Amino acid sequence: MRKTAKKPAVISVSEDFFPAPVWEGALKTRERAGQLKQNWTDLELSNDSAITIYDCYPYLFLGPFPDVPPAAVADFTLAIKLLASSVFLADKIMDLGPQSPNPTNTLAHVFALQVEAYTLFQRLFAPDSPFWPRFHTYFDNYLSACQTEKKFALGQLSWKEFDEKVASTIAIGKASLSRCVLAGLSALQGNEQWLDTLTEALDLYNFAYQMFDDLCDWKEDYLHQSPSLLLCRWLPERPEEPKWADLEALARELYYDGHACTMLQVAIDAAERALLLTSSIPELTWRIIPTNLLERCESLCRDILKITQANRRRSQRPINFYLELPAARTPCEQLAWQGLQFLIRQWQLGFGEARDVARFPQAQGFNAESEFQYGDVFQRAVISDILTEVSETFKLNLEPIIKDEVGYLLEQRSHDGIGGWRYYPELSEIPPDADDLGQIMQLLLHTDNRAAITRFCEQPLTTLLTENRYDDGSFETWIIPASHRTPQQERHFAYAQTIWGTGPDVDVMANLLYALALYDPARFAEIIHTGASYIEAQQQIDGSWASTWYHGPYYGSFVCARLLAKVKLASPALEKIQAFLLKTQQANGGWGGLDYAKSDPLNTALALLSWSALAQTGKYRPADTVIERGLSFLQQSYDENDRAWPYVEFILMAEGRLSKNITRIMSYGSQSVTTAFVLKAATAWHRLREQ
Q1: 82, 29 contact by CB (below 8 A)
Q2: Predicted pLDDT at 1
Q3: Could you tell me which of 671, 555, 652 has the C-alpha nearest to residue 613?
Q4: How far apart are CA 534 and CA 677, in angstroms?
Q5: For the chain, what percent of residues have pLDDT higher than 90?
Q6: Do 263 and 230 meet the contact criterion of CB atoms below 8 Å apart?
């Protein structure tokens, strides 16, 4: 299993988050920390790329300690930042152990940071200062908490013993060095009037933040067998063999059985108590921190309740739809009936399982009302388009479902600017994109909704092809006007440059060009021809196409092969993709994402769809055994318990890819999407064989 260190609970902040003196203190601290790096070889500081609360922590508590000299505050803040950086690096080593990249070098950085921090502490505090015994106690609490947590992670202690008291002890213990801020300021002030109250409030905040963070990171914690109050309350035992495939079912339990909101309420209660304790302490800037956390927890809880209640209502709505399927006559029909029955059930439930949910923190500059955003436009457009193929091929009446989905997708379009569709409809920092546009156009064409294309697709399409297209025939994924941009479009442009990345993506281009070839091949002939030539030139040496936005080579290869088979039959790229498909089929008949040796149903379905695109040309029909083995693998990988095909990673989004400073990779897959592509592959090969 792939292992990554759990990120420490660090809050990145922007300039408008704190009062000016605090922000200025943070900038000076970072400048001095940067100068210290000159004394050590390749010294690593945590969160070098962003301002965090650890760049200014003592400044947040200065109100009740007005007599501490500014120079002492500056030195103390630098010492706290260095100590915090050393702890975060040590956490990385403890989390990953021998698998940590270059643990010896990281450990050397820990020692260097602590040497610099202790030097500053010794300059600030005399040997008999009350700071030192407290510092020793806090360090001992930190080490004890780390050891206890590791015992739970290794299974040496039962998860049944991990109750709220244990969770509080571990969370407060692992953050106990933050108490040094209060112990140090009290010692420098020579007054301990507020020490106990502030320490209790800080402990409550640290516990609240850990509960919130555990909810945000629950998937990572589950996969790494890392205990948290959330998981230990929810799961009866430590998971012995956690699997990616389990995550979707667990997510449904997490949100629909109330575990998520229960944990948020624990965090809310602790944050409120911290604010109540400090309500009478004068000029305490630190209160901004628990207030912000409280607002985030309450907002997230409201969003979870809103979404789950809406889904429950949708699942309980009266649906006058019934479909009786005949007995399956062929393996393709058997696959199709299984996939269709699952997707009909998901439609009745509002396709909640197909949603892609991701967190976009306000502390990182995202300004949506909710930090958690969900997108299902692309997924439901893909599924609906597949259902139109199924309806036509098998002569089934799926019109009520398809009509309902088309109505939903038209409602989800952007109602400002150039229109179009955004992957996360309510995330204002993400622009409309060509991939969603191309997929929606295909669905509207296959459902005889050309009038809707004229009304809703022409404007974003014109912007894309006139303002976002290059001389080599390629075009951008993001649809953003080149000039005369609105303030929101300026924000789109800025985030495309810094977060989402720019430049042409062949997987997106092929999907949009295919839609144009269906829509009006004569009108867009030059665009289709030059775009197809660009795609040909991007083919990999092995015959596949790499995807920017999708896991593995098979989705990108499918949409590229489908396009060329329709608009450029003589392309030598088609022979190359045929050779790639033959070479990478496994002994069990399947194909697999990046790990070719491990077949999975999603990539097998995509490979079979590439074969179907080649076969439709009449020039590249594969041996029957190739297809039979692939279809057989799909049947073998059907999950009888879920009555669907399993979750497989499909979409990926890498933040910061343009600068090559990737800060986060978001990944998505679902049973609905896997099952839909299996259904599409079975339908395509049924149609070919009938012909």
Answers
A1: no
A2: 32
A3: 555
A4: 27
A5: 62
A6: yes
Distance set, CA 611 to CA 81, 385, 474, 560, 628 (Å): 57, 19, 25, 12, 12
Distances, alpha carbon 102 to alpha carbons 1, 106, 107, 451, in Å: 19, 6, 9, 59
If you average pLDDT over residues 407-431, what whole number do you get? 93
| Structural contact between residues 554 and 607, judged by C-beta atoms closer than 8 angstroms | yes
Return the SS3 of 113.
helix
Residue 500 carries which side chain, given as an amino acid letter? W
Helix intervals (H) in 224-330:
229-234, 247-256, 259-277, 288-316
- pLDDT computed for residue 206 by the predictor: 95
Report the interhelical angle of 554-567 vs 601-615 (nearest 10°).
Answer: 10
CA distances from 641 to 249, 605, 638, 678 (A): 12, 21, 9, 17
Q: Is the pLDDT of residue 655 over 60?
A: yes
Query: Which tokens is 96 given?
Result: 């990953």
Strand (E) or helix (H) holding 320 = none
Nearest Cα to Cα of residue 246 among 525, 516, 646, 571? 646
Residues 6+ apart with CB under 8 A from 469: 475, 476, 527
Distance CA 138, CA 330 (A): 69
Place of tokens 């070479």: 583
In the structure, what pLDDT confidence band is assigned to residue 653 with cuts at 50, 70 and 90? confident
> d(Cα 103, Cα 6) in Å, to the nearest integer?
16
pLDDT digits (tens, 9 = 90+) for 421-430: 999 999 999 9
Within 10 A of 450 (CB to CB), how many other CB atoms are there? 14
CA atoms within 13 A on the CB side of 349: 15
C-alpha dist (Å) from residue 253 to 256, 276, 618: 5, 33, 48
pLDDT band at 9 (very low <50, low <70, confident <90, very high): very low
| Alpha-carbon span 274 to 284, nearest angstrom | 12
Could you give the residue ranges of the DSSP H alpha helices within 395-433? 399-411
- Write the CA distances from 325 to 342, 391, 689, integer angstroms: 13, 12, 20
Q: For residues 635 and 109, which has the higher predicted lDDT (pLDDT)?
A: 635
Is residue 431 classed as helix, strand or coil in its secondary structure?
coil
CA distances from 129 to 123, 135, 176 (A): 12, 11, 19
Q: Give the global pTM.
A: 0.69
Query: 324 — phi, psi (to 5°)?
Result: -105, 120
Geometric angle at alpha carbon 451, from 446 and 456, rounded to 5°:
95
What distance in Å separates the CA atoms of residue 539 and residue 563, rounded to the nearest whole number? 13
> CA dist 387 to 185, 257, 435, 599, 676, Å?
66, 31, 19, 25, 8
Query: Model confidence over 335-362: pLDDT tens digits?
Result: 999 999 999 999 988 888 898 888 887 7
C-alpha Rg value of the chain to the nearest Å: 28
**Pairwise CA distance, residues 393 & 395, whole Å:** 6
At 12, list the tokens: 């990145």
For residues 109 and 43, the answer to whether their CB atoms sit within 8 Å is yes
Comparing C-alpha atoms, which of 70, 82, 73 is closest to residue 33? 82
Contact 115, 67 (CB under 8 A): no
Burial 33-48 (b: 16+ CB within 10 A, else e): beebeeeeeebbbbbe
Residue 104 and residue 42 in contact, taking contact as beta carbons nearer than 8 Å: no
